[in-house]
Amino acid sequence: MVSPGLAGRLAFQLWRRPLMRGRVREVEREVHEAARIEIVDGVVTYAWGDGSRPVLLVHGWRSRASRYYALVARLLELGYSPVSYDAPGHGDTPGPTGTILDHQRIIRFLEAKHGPFEGMVAYSIGVLFGLYAVREGVAAKWIVTISGIAQFDYLVDKFCRELRLDPAVQPALRRTIERQLFQGDREIWTKFSVGVGEIGLLAVHNDEDDVVDPDQADHLLAQYGPKATLLRTTGLGHHRIVSDTDVIEEAVTFLTAAGPTTSSGSAIPLSGQWSHGS
Question: What is the per-residue pLDDT across 207-229, written as a single tens digit (0 to 9) for each?
Answer without folding.
Answer: 999 999 999 999 999 999 999 99
